[in-house]
Amino acid sequence: MFFQPYFLQLTSILIISSISFSTSADINSSTAAQGVETIVLKDETTVSAAVDHIVAELEQQGFNIPLIINHSAAAASVGLELAPNQVIFARPPKALEKRLLKKNNSIGIDLPMKYLVFEDNNGAINLSVNSIGYLIDRHDLAIKDIVLKLTNTLIEQFGTVNAQGHGLISIESSQSIEDTVQAIQDTLSANPAVRIPLVLNYRKHNKYNNRRNHNLSPVLIVFGNPNVGTPLMQADPKIGIDLPLEFLVWSDKQAQVYITYNDPHFIATRFNIEGQNARLDAIANVLKNLAQAGAGDKL
């Protein structure tokens, strides 16, 4: 092969112990954000080529790719400029995905895993992924779990983030999962500027609809408006790993349905984005109203 393989442990130790990419890379610690690891793909010359290589390797490792968002193309479609920036949504092998969701349904908002590929101000091609410590702390995953195969050495190597503000907002829904998802989609579709590139039913693909696992039925709704998200990525392209926005609809063991989403202020804080408070307040208000509509609350 033209490229020499290497092992990129930081990419998905949560799912597999290591994954090989056909290129070389340097960890870019100087641009680290909270809970995000970024590397420079030294042998890649374009974002598109890097995305193709990463997708091929992920699929070889058993991942499924339900969605690739081209943030820069979306920006251009509304007359805005953004350096090449794409995010890959990668679902881990089904057996592992099922067991992770069984530990905590909220991790469904971070599954599929996100792989952000972007061009920085120096023209270098970068890859950003959420760190293992971030996912462990955010979703209270048991470190001793066999699926995670984590050791104290790995925890010390990759670290954990502050466990006090995981940036997840959850509200109860008075409706079923199906009705909640439909209500959210109907409300989103009423705005022609909003795009819904993915509605992922974990239950459908992993057979959660049996009596024993009735609580394991999350549905992920991915949606966005490039007029809203592009200015945030212009401030820091790495925030593209948390865009488009998402709603996770799920139920607990008591069959109580919840809607979970990311706090936009938390997302901005992850990347030290400043001067966007008005925009973030507006996003937060829209998300709150959408969630309430999905929950069956009267606005």
Detailed description of the structure:
The chain is α+β, with helices and mostly antiparallel strands. The chain has one domain (6-295): 2-Layer Sandwich (TATA-Binding Protein), CATH 3.30.310.70. It contains eleven helices and 13 strands. It has helices at 9-12, 47-60, 71-77, 94-103, 132-138, 152-158, 177-189, 202-206, 226-235, 264-270, 277-295; strands at residues 6-7, 20-21, 25-27, 36-41, 64-70, 85-91, 113-119, 125-130, 168-173, 195-201, 219-224, 245-251, 257-262. The strands form three sheets. Strands 3-4-8-7-6-5 form a six-stranded antiparallel sheet. It has a five-stranded antiparallel sheet with strand order 9-13-12-11-10. A two-stranded antiparallel ribbon has the order 1-2. Helix 7 (177-189) packs across helix 11 (277-295). The longest helix has 19 residues, at 277-295.
Question: What is this structure, in a nutshell?
Answer:
The protein has helices spanning 9-12, 47-60, 71-77, 94-103, 132-138, 152-158, 177-189, 202-206, 226-235, 264-270, 277-295, and strands at 6-7, 20-21, 25-27, 36-41, 64-70, 85-91, 113-119, 125-130, 168-173, 195-201, 219-224, 245-251, 257-262. With 299 residues, the chain is an alpha+beta fold. The protein has a six-stranded antiparallel β-sheet with strand order 3-4-8-7-6-5. Strands 9-13-12-11-10 form a five-stranded antiparallel β-sheet. Strands 1-2 form a two-stranded antiparallel ribbon.
SSE layout and pairing:
Layout: E1 6-7, H1 9-12, E2 20-21, E3 25-27, E4 36-41, H2 47-60, E5 64-70, H3 71-77, E6 85-91, H4 94-103, E7 113-119, E8 125-130, H5 132-138, H6 152-158, E9 168-173, H7 177-189, E10 195-201, H8 202-206, E11 219-224, H9 226-235, E12 245-251, E13 257-262, H10 264-270, H11 277-295
Antiparallel strand pairs: 1-2, 3-4, 4-8, 5-6, 6-7, 7-8, 9-13, 10-11, 11-12, 12-13
Helix pairs in contact: 7-11
